[in-house]
Amino acid sequence: MPKTNRQWLLKARPAAMPSEADFELAETPVPEPGPGQFVMRASVLSVDPYMRGRMRDVKSYVPPVQIGEVMTGASVGAVVASRHPDFKEGDIVEGRFGWQDYARSDGRDAGARKVDPSLAPISTALGVLGMPGMTAYFGLTEVGQPKEGETVVVSAASGAVGGLVGQIARIKGCRAVGIAGGPQKCAYVKDELGMDAAIDHRKARDLEAMTAALGEAAPDGVDVYFDNVGGMTLDAVLARINLHARIAICGMISEYNQAELELAPRPTRALLVQRARMQGLIVFDWLKRYPEGMAQMAAWIKEGRIKYREDVLDGIENMPKAMLRLFSGENFGKQLVRAAPDPA
Amino acid sequence: MPKTNRQWLLKARPAAMPSEADFELAETPVPEPGPGQFVMRASVLSVDPYMRGRMRDVKSYVPPVQIGEVMTGASVGAVVASRHPDFKEGDIVEGRFGWQDYARSDGRDAGARKVDPSLAPISTALGVLGMPGMTAYFGLTEVGQPKEGETVVVSAASGAVGGLVGQIARIKGCRAVGIAGGPQKCAYVKDELGMDAAIDHRKARDLEAMTAALGEAAPDGVDVYFDNVGGMTLDAVLARINLHARIAICGMISEYNQAELELAPRPTRALLVQRARMQGLIVFDWLKRYPEGMAQMAAWIKEGRIKYREDVLDGIENMPKAMLRLFSGENFGKQLVRAAPDPA
Questions:
Q1: Which of the four pLDDT bands, split at 50, 70 and 90, describes residue B58?
Q2: Which of B272, B283, B285, B286 to mutate to test binding with chain A, by most A CBs within 10 Å of its CB?
Q3: At residue B288, does pLDDT exceed 90?
Q4: Which residues of B fall within a CB distance of 8 Å from A275?
Q5: For chain B, how many structural domains are there in total?
C-alpha cells in the first residue's frame, strides 16, 4: 500500500474556463482513523459538471471549495482501516470523499453509503446506480412527470444523466428526443440508447437552427424538457413547448464557464401562454427515496432496458484533465478516473 | 333605448405604447337576436392588461383581434332581447361581449354566464367576483400554494388581481408584501388591504434598489411570488427566493408595450439552486371550478375579509383612455367603464 496520499487542491478560482493550472497535486501522509472514523481508498473517482460551481466563490446549495482545500467530489472504494461501528475493513463505500487516494470520514460528513459489489461493477455507484442515475430517475419522473405518448426532450443526451433520462422516457411510453454533440454521440443516442430522434447541436448552432431542428425532431411539440445545458438550447425549446409543458432545470453546462452572464429574452411569456412550468431540481431532495430509485434502475439494467456507458481515464493525476473533458464535450458517457484497481 | 350601437374597432397595431388613435369608434344598428341568440346591453365594461396582447398579431392562447374588428373584452349588463332558451330578457349576463353597447351572442361564443344582482353590485362580475377574482384565487392557491407562515410577494398590489392576492395570502396565514406605484397606493395596500409591507416601485426603480427593498420587506426571503408585472421586478425577486419557492407568472404589464424584448439574465440558476418553480397561469384552466372560487370570494367579502376598489370612467367613448390608464398606472383599483346605468 502506498505511504502517501495524493490530493488535488484548489489553487485558483478561474474566471472562465478552468485549466489544469487551477489545481495543485499535493502528497500528504495516508490518514489514520480516529474514534468513530474510517479510512477508505478510492478505486474510482467521479468528475461531474456541478464541480465547476464549487470552484466559484458564491453561495449555492452547498458552500464553495476554499483555496488550498481538497477538491470536492465522489469516489468509490474499499474501507482500509476503521474505528467506525458500521463501516468495516473491506466494505465498499461511496461518498463525497474528495479528489484524493485516501479519505478519512465519520460517514456522515461524506454522505457515505455501502455499495453491494455483487450487483454491478462498483464504478456504477458513481453513475447509473449513484447520483447521476438518481438525478435522471427522480428528476424525470417527479419534476418532468412524463405521460404516455408525450414528447420528452433531453440535452447532453449521451451523458451520465441525459442518457438515462432518454431511456426512462422511452420506458414510460414517450417519444424521446436527445440533443448531443457530433454524429458519433447522436448515433449512440439513437442506435444504442433507443431514443426516437437525435439533434446534433454542433450542426444546430444558433437559436434559429435549433428551433428548426426541434420542429422536425419533435413535430408534436415538447411536453417535457430535461435541461442539462441551459443557454440557447433552452431558449429554443421554449419556442416549442406545448400546453402545460414541464421543464426540469438540472444543469446549465453551456453557461458554467462564462465569465459574464449571457443575456436572453425572459422565458416568462412562453411559460404564461402555455401555462407551463420550469422547475429546478437537485437530487439530494430525494435522498430518502434513493433505495426505491436504485432498485428500479438496477431492475431495468438487469432486464436490459437501461444501458450506460463509462469513459474512464487512468490515474488520479488526470483528475483536472477529466473534468475539463466535460466542458469540451470530449467525454463520451459518464466521465470517471481510475485511481486503483477495484478491491478484490 | 338608443337606436345605434357604439363599437370600438381596432384600427392599427401599435409597435409600443398604444394611443387612442389605434382605435376607432363606429356606430352601427343595434343588432337583433337570431334563433338561439340574445342581445345584451352593456352597463359596465372592463379593461384589462391582457387586451394589449390581443392587439398584437402573434399567436397566443387566444387569437388576436383583426384590424377593423370590435375590440375584445368583458362586460356586464341586461339581456334586452332573446331567442335563446336559457337567457331571458332582463337576465344579467357577463361575458366577452366586446367593446360595444350592444352585443349579440349565442352564449357560448362569449363565455356568457348569468350574474345574481342580489349578491353584490353587478360591476363585481368584472372584478372580485369575475375573471380577476378567480385569477387571484386559483392562481395563488393552486400555483402559489402558500403555506401558513410563508412570505407571499405580489406585484401590482393595489390592482384588480394583486389587491386580492395579498388579502388571500393574509387569510392563508402568510406575510403579504405588496409592490405598488406611489405613496397613495402603498398606503392603501398596507392600511386598507392589510398587507404587512408595501414597496413603492417608483422609489425602488432599478434592480439593486428593488432587491434591497425586498430584503427589508421580506426579511425571511420570498416563498411565493405572484407576478403581474414581469421585467426587473421579477429579476429582483429571483435574487430573494427561498428553497422550493413558487413563482406564479400571471402577467408582465411592464413589458407589454416594449417594441423590442428587453434581455435579462436567465432565471434558471436561481431556480436550480433553490429548487424553485416558475409556472405560467391562465384563469380559464379553472373555468369548471369558478363556482367554488366565486362562493369562497363572496363569503370572504361578506365576512369583511376581502376588500376591493373600482376605478370607473363614465362613457363608452372613454374605453381607449381607460385602457391606457392601466399602462401609466393612473388607475387605482379595477379599471371599469360605465356605458349605461345598472338595470333596474
A1: confident
A2: B272
A3: yes
A4: 61, 279-282, 285
A5: 2
Q: What is the DSSP letter of A63?
A: P
- Predicted TM-score of the model (pTM): 0.95
Chain B contact residues (CB < 8 Å to A): 60-61, 227, 230, 234, 249-252, 255, 261-282, 285
Residues 6+ apart with CB under 8 A from A202: A181, A182
Kindly state whether residue B303 falls inside one of the protein's structural domains: no
Q: Is the domain of B161 the same as that of B278? A: yes
Contact across the interface for B277 and A278, Cβ inside 8 Å = yes
Q: What is the mean pLDDT of residues A287-300?
A: 96
Query: Please, which pLDDT band fits residue B344 given cuts at 50, 70 and 90?
Result: confident
- Yes or no: say if A135 and A161 are a contact pair by the CB < 8 Å rule: yes
The closest CB to that of B275, out of A261, A270, A280, belongs to A280
Q: Are residues A265 and A316 in the same domain?
A: no
In this complex, the residue of B234, B251, B271 whose CB is nearest that of residue A249 is B271
Interface residue of A60, A138, A249 to substitute, partner B, most B CBs within 10 Å: A249
Burial of A329 (0-12, 13-18, 19+ CB in 10 A): middle
Taking contacts as CB-CB distances below 8 angstroms, the residues of chain A near B285 are 275
- Residue B266, in any domain of the structure: yes
**Which residues have CB under 8 Å from B219's CB, separation 6+?**
none
B199, B272: one domain: yes
The domain of A195 spans: 131-284
Q: Of B60, B252, B269, which has the smallest distance from its Cβ to A268's Cβ?
A: B252
**Residue A169 near residue A300, CB atoms below 8 Å:** no
Same domain as A53, residue A121: yes
Q: What is the pLDDT of residue A59?
A: 75
Q: pLDDT tens digits, residue range A97-134?
A: 999 999 999 999 999 999 999 989 999 999 999 999 99
Interchain CB contacts (distance < 8 Å): A and B: 109
Cell of A111: 454522505
Query: For position A272, which CATH number holds?
Result: 3.40.50.720
Q: Which residues of B touch A259 (CB under 8 A)?
A: none
Per-residue pLDDT at B299: 96
> Same domain, yes or no, for A43 and A146?
no
Q: Is pLDDT of B34 > 90?
A: yes
Min mean pLDDT across A16-30, A93-107, A250-264, A329-343 is at: A250-264
Q: What percent of chain B has pLDDT over 70?
A: 99
Cell numbers given for B328: 401609466
Q: Do B275 and A264 touch (CB under 8 A)?
A: no
Is residue A244 pLDDT above 80, yes or no? Answer: yes
- Whole-number pLDDT of residue B2: 64
Sign of CA dihedral A330, A334, A335, A339: negative
Q: What share of chain B is helix, strand, coil (3-state, %, to 5)?
A: 30, 25, 45
Judging contacts by C-beta atoms under 8 Å, the chain B residues touching residue A261 are 265-266
Rounded CA gap, B282 and A241, in Å?
Answer: 16
Residues B147 and B10 in one domain: no
User: Using one digit for the tens of pLDDT, what is the confidence trace for B214-244?
Assistant: 999 999 999 999 999 999 999 999 999 999 9
Q: Is B144 in the same domain as B122?
A: no
Which one-letter DSSP state was computed for residue B314? E
Average pLDDT, chain A: 96
B114/B149 same-domain check: no
Spatial CB neighbours of A71, under 8 Å, sequence gap ≥ 6: A8, A9, A10, A23, A51, A54, A65, A98, A99, A319
Residues of A in contact with B276 (CB under 8 A): 279-280
**Chain B hits for A60, Cβ within 8 Å:** 273
Contact B234 A274 (CB under 8 A): no
